[in-house]
Amino acid sequence: MELVNTLSFGKRNKNIVREIKKTFLAKQDEIYLKLEDFKRVWHKEDGEIFTELVFCLLTPQSKARTCWDVVVTLKKKGLIWNGDRNNIANELVGVRFKNKKASYIVKARKLFSKNGKITIKSKLKLFDDAYKLRDWLVHNVKGIGYKEASHFLRNIGLGENMAILDRHILKNLNLLGVTDDVPSSLSKKRYFEIENRMMKFSSKINIPMSYLDLVLWYKETGETFK
């Protein structure tokens, strides 16, 4: 393997590289279909795109499956569109910091609404560069950092090459020798540094960034999800 030869990986790292390459080969068709599903979201109604943003607002320090189940409940009850902070918070069972996150949802809804209607696509379309859009989201949507913004854009088909640096990905990048540690928090500068390293690693092992994220997620959770 080119990466093992050029980066002088230890035995442990070599084994992990082999593991993720094997997983990529086994799961690439499934991941391709998942990525195509993400791309289709962009062509759906504004409400569906906003739903993906709500999901990403809920995920910090909470399980993705739990957060998505909560989002489905909020949709069924119409709370994503009409619920106040207390109504929404009451439904965030299993989601950490539920009061703060309920407040984030209400604020995001206000930001992306016009005349009482969600109009998120018109705002997102103002940007012809996904990275500039990510910066705008981080600076304008309360509760969104670079991880959440990258996650959201990937899930609506606009951020395939962005790194979603959650704890699973950071742990594996460290095991692979891409990073020297597993940071407990990430500044903008540190986020971009690790993202750049992950891009180079992705290129060296010939696994596209969007696939690599889901391969590492599968390695940790046993599924390709959101």
Report on the architecture of this protein.
This protein is mainly α and 226 residues long. 68% of the residues lie in helices and 2% in strands. The protein is built from 13 helices and two strands, in the order H-H-H-H-H-H-H-E-E-H-H-H-H-H-H. The protein has helices spanning 2-7, 11-41, 46-58, 64-76, 79-82, 85-91, 98-111, 120-124, 130-140, 146-155, 167-175, 188-204, 209-221; strands at 113-114, 117-118. Strand 1 (113-114) and strand 2 form a beta hairpin. Helix 3 packs across helix 4. The protein is globular, with a radius of gyration of 18 Å. The two termini are 30 Å apart. Mean pLDDT is 92; it is low at 1-6.
Q: What would a concise description of this structure say?
A:
The protein has 226 residues and is an all-alpha fold. It is 68% helix and 2% strand. Helix 2 (11-41) packs across helix 13, helix 6 packs across helix 7 and helix 9 packs across helix 10.
Summarize the SSE layout with pairings:
Elements: H1 2-7, H2 11-41, H3 46-58, H4 64-76, H5 79-82, H6 85-91, H7 98-111, E1 113-114, E2 117-118, H8 120-124, H9 130-140, H10 146-155, H11 167-175, H12 188-204, H13 209-221
Antiparallel strand pairs: 1-2
Strand order of the largest sheet: 1-2
Structural class: mainly alpha
Distance between the termini: 30 Å
Main β-sheet: number of strands, strand sense, barrel status?
2 strands, antiparallel
- Helical amount: 55-70%
User: How does the overall form come out from the CA principal axes?
Assistant: globular
Throw out a few tags for this protein.
two-stranded antiparallel sheet, 226 residues, single chain, mainly alpha
